[in-house]
Amino acid sequence: MRLAIFLVSLFLGIACLLAGLFFTRQAWLPDIEPFDRSSSLFHIALHPERFARPGQLQIIRCLNLAGAALILCAVSVVVYDIVNIPGR
């Protein structure tokens, strides 16, 4: 059961973060330099208001927050397994 929770939360978290980046890229402000390989994905996900138009900021923030929460859930499952090692 814990493995299923880990995998589902990990994959959904990654999907939410990628969707947030996709929507940020679709709503890119015209006065900002284009998105390329040197763009910091962490900075774009953390501060979408600097890169995206205000109309889509709410959905981008919700996707980024949901993705981070799901990744944190997956990490917490791993930490729970480490703390509760059988045979201790």
Describe this protein with a few key phrases.
88 residues; mainly alpha; 0% strand
Structure, explained:
The chain is mostly helical and 88 residues long. Helices cover 66% and strands 0% of the residues. The protein has three helices and no strands. It has helices at residues 2-26, 41-46, 57-83. Helix 1 packs antiparallel against helix 3.
Provide a brief overview of the structure.
This protein has helices spanning 2-26, 41-46, 57-83.
Tell me how many strands there are: 0
What does the radius of gyration come to? 16 Å
- What is the straight-line distance between the termini? 21 Å
Mean pLDDT: 90
Report the biggest beta sheet as strand number plus sense, adding barrel if it closes: none
Uncertain segments are none
Task: Give the secondary structure arrangement, pairings included.
Layout: H1 2-26, H2 41-46, H3 57-83
Helix pairs in contact: 1-3
